[in-house]
Amino acid sequence: MNAELPPVSIYIITYLESEERGELLKTICRNALAQRYPEFEVVVSDNAGRVKAAEVLSSIRDPRLKVFRNEKNLGFAGNINRCVERCAHNIIKLNCDDDLLHPDCLALTVPYVDDQTLVMVDHEEYTIGDEPAELARSIAAPQAVETREPGYGENIWATTYISMPGCSLFTRSLFQELGGYDSESRIPDWDFMIHARLHKKVVHVREKLCFIGVWPGSITQKMQKERPYFFPASGLHMRFRLLQDPALEEQARRHIRELLRKEKTTSLLRLLKNIHRKSYREGFREYMKEFRLQSRRSQWPVLRLPAAGLPQDQP
User: Fold this and answer.
1) 75 alpha carbon, distance to own chain's centre
2) Lowest mean pLDDT among 35-49, 63-77, 84-98, 162-176
3) Which class for 46: exposed (0-12), middle (13-18), buried (19 or more C-beta within 10 A)?
4) Rounded to 5°, angle at Cα 272 from 191 and 294
5) pLDDT of residue 314
6) CA-CA distance, 255 to 2, in Å (whole number)?
7) Of 131, 185, 221, 223, which is most buried with the most CB atoms under 10 A?
8) How does 274-293 read in b/e, with b if 16+ C-beta sit within 10 Å?
9) Is the CB of residue 201 less than 8 Å from the CB of residue 148?
10) DSSP notation for 57-79
11) Residue 209 is inside which H or E element, if any?
């Protein structure tokens, strides 16, 4: 093996509810095994789904593929943390069970990884069932590499910079130092990225090396339509968590408090604009419940907005 390219574990978390999803997992694993890289493994963690991943993947005869099944569903964060424990190598690449990798993803990113650096790459969405044309594109070297030093800045929340949580590489030491994925978070993958950017350097390789699968009627699309406050409410956990981080300076705390106030006002305005829609009324109540819960935990006195007095929905 090239001494400059250490071995890597690509880990894939999955929960299979259908044979269709199982066939997609098989495609994803074959894609991961096609990396042009000297030494790596692909570790699959089956979160006790109805369809067993080991049976779905039994036709892939490759010793680099290792499949584990949890005795019970550990939740999203729990499954990721357990899967990392099962990885044999120090450098770890997250991959979701509907995402594809460019065959040179590892070769182009691993050189930037160390215990103080999270490596991110650009991504592109593709519709499940189609193969992204850019998978076949030859990439000799990254066109651009950007470095963000650890610490708080307004761009810590920028989704265009974060790319996607599945587009990251890190060492086991970095993962453990940050405490892994937070089981109390509704979106632990996103929150892990924010936490990492506060405490670790981020190297952003500006190449589309990850391809994010999009199902027609995907969970994200469904959540945005049926629970319009899900993501605003979910983001509160990390906002309030950062307020308690001793590494944060007071100026940064003031900025987060201002963000929270603005987001709360924006959420109320969304409700007033859509007051006739039941999903918005229920969503705002959920948002306010989460806001009060997180503010109590952080012992931060917050400006009250009227959650009570909204029109009550009939059963």
Assistant:
1) 14
2) 162-176
3) buried
4) 30
5) 45
6) 46
7) 185
8) eeeeeebbbbbbbbbebbee
9) yes
10) TTT---TTEEEEE-SS--HHHHH
11) strand 201-214
